Amino acid sequence: DAPPAQAAVARSVREHPLPAAYDDSWAALRWVLASAADGSDPWLSQYGDLSRLFLAGDSAGGNIAHNLALRAGEEGLDGGARIKGVALLDPYFQGRSPVGADATDPAYLQSAARTWSFICAGRYPINHPYADPLVLPASSWQHLGASRVLVTVSEQDRLSPWQRAYYTALRGSRWPGEAELYETPGEGHVYFLTKLGSPQALAEMAKLVAFINRD
Which numeric CATH code is attached to 20-213? Predict the structure, then answer.
């Protein structure tokens, strides 16, 4: 049987810049836990297993899923809930210290900084941990509140160096969980949204399903 899924929709970043999206997603997670625990949502109560929660997101959603898992590890979850896994699909990570080929492309780096500044209304520099987990000390990664993490990377994605660096940093940290890296050759950022039935998208979906269904 397929596990129940709940989508979280954050407020528009134009009117509600970061950290609104993080706070909205955290509130949505808390709502799911409370609704399942008190029976106010019978569907969640009957079919949900709070000891096997999964967070997933693509692009900015992947960034949110990472930050949500970190917050869950730091603050804890109610009712004995546990995040079993986190799936980061072509996650959005950036920083001030260039990573990969774009280290020599000032125009791209300036564009990335402007985009981040818009997302957070200038509240946080691009090397803030919200955008750049690589600035976290190794000891902070241990608070990532999940047993397993899957990072997917599309070869032609300009964010791919950051995504691989995230995976490497996670593997080298004090986090005690299991990290997996899945790469798709020849495709760009979140290609699976426009190529739903392609062999590559179907293979990545199969990987995600297997990741969730593991014991």
Answer: 3.40.50.1820
